[in-house]
Design goal:
By secondary structure, the chain is an alpha+beta fold. It has two domains: about 5-40 and about 155-205, no CATH class; about 45-150, no CATH class. About 30% of the residues lie in helices and about 25% in strands. The chain contains five helices and ten strands. It has helices spanning about 5-15, 20-40, 130-135, 155-175, 195-205, and strands at about 45-55, 60-70, 75-80, 80-85, 90-95, 100-105, 140-150, 180, 185-190, 210. The strands form three sheets. Strands 4-3-7-1-10 form a five-stranded antiparallel beta sheet, with no helix packed on it. It has a three-stranded antiparallel beta sheet with strand order 2-6-5, with no helix packed on it. A two-stranded antiparallel sheet has the order 8-9. Helix 2 (about 20-40) packs across helix 4 and helix 4 packs across helix 5. The longest helix is centred in the last third of the chain and has 20 residues, at about 155-175. It is elongated, with a radius of gyration of 22 Å. The relative contact order is 0.23.
C-alpha cells in the first residue's frame, strides 16, 4: 500500500534532520496511513488495476470504496454482464471530494424510469420480471475493476495522518510512559489519539458493501 505521507514529510513535521530514526519514521508513516484507511473504511492512496467485489443485496444504490469519479480504465460487471456508465450504472460524486465516488447506482429511482428507454415497451421493462433481472441478492454480484483512491490526498486527511504518524513516533520513543517530550521541549500525551485524527475519522468514515478483493 502506498503511504499517504512520506518519510521526509514526517521528518519535517517532527523537526528531525538526522537519519538515525529513519526506519522507525518510515514504519510509523506506513502504519498511520493504514490506520487512516482502516478506521474510515476509505481508500485514500491511489492504486491501479484493482478489482473489488461487492454484494448489492438487491439494492439499487450501495456504498463502495473510493473510486475516481472519472476513470476510462474502469470495467463494471453485474452478475457477469458488463455495464455501461451513464446508461445502466452511475457513479455519484462524494460530497467531501467530488473527484471521487463512494456510491454506485444500478438503476434510476424514478417510478417509471423505463420510459426513458426508447425500447421499453418491446423489452417489457415495465414488467416486475424485468426489474427482478436487474436486481440481485446473490453474494459478490457487483465487480468493479480499475483505479481506486483519491487522485490527490485531501489536505485534512494528510494533516491528520501526519499528526498520527508523529504521535506513533513519540509513543514508540516513550516506551511505557504515556508522556514524551518533543525536540522543542513540548510535552506530548501519547495515551490518546490526536484530536485532528479523531475528527478526520468522524468526517470521512463510511460503511462499504465490499465483499472481497
Amino acid at each position: 500500500m502506498s503511504t499517504l505521507v512520506t518519510l521526509d514529510e514526517v521528518k519535517t513535521y517532527l523537526g528531525k534532520t538526522g537519519t538515525d530514526d529513519d526506519l522507525l519514521i518510515a514504519s510509523v508513516a506506513s502504519n498511520a496511513s493504514a490506520m487512516a484507511e482502516r478506521d474510515t473504511g476509505r481508500i485514500f492512496a491511489v492504486a491501479s488495476n484493482v478489482t473489488l467485489l461487492y454484494s448489492t443485496d438487491g439494492q439499487r444504490a450501495i456504498t463502495i470504496h473510493d473510486h475516481p469519479y472519472n476513470d476510462t480504465t474502469r470495467v463494471i460487471r453485474f452478475n457477469g454482464a458488463v455495464l455501461t456508465e451513464g446508461t445502466n450504472v452511475w457513479f455519484l460524486q462524494d460530497r467531501r471530494n467530488p473527484s471521487v465516488a463512494v456510491v454506485v447506482q444500478l438503476a434510476p429511482f424514478t417510478p417509471e424510469w423505463f420510459v426513458h428507454n426508447f425500447n421499453w415497451f418491446d423489452a417489457n421493462m415495465d414488467s416486475p420480471r424485468y426489474l427482478a433481472r436487474i436486481t440481485s441478492g446473490m453474494p459478490n454480484d457487483l465487480e468493479i475493476a480499475g483505479t481506486v483512491g483519491h487522485p490527490v490526498t485531501p489536505p485534512d486527511v494528510k494533516q491528520a495522518v501526519l499528526e498520527l504518524a508523529s504521535w506513533l513516533y513519540w509513543r514508540a520513543k516513550g516506551g511505557a510512559s504515556s508522556m514524551d517530550v518533543t525536540l522543542t521541549g513540548t510535552e506530548v500525551d501519547v495515551s490518546l489519539l490526536p484530536m485532528a485524527y479523531q475528527v478526520m475519522v468522524r468526517n470521512w468514515k463510511v460503511l462499504t458493501a465490499v465483499a472481497g478483493v
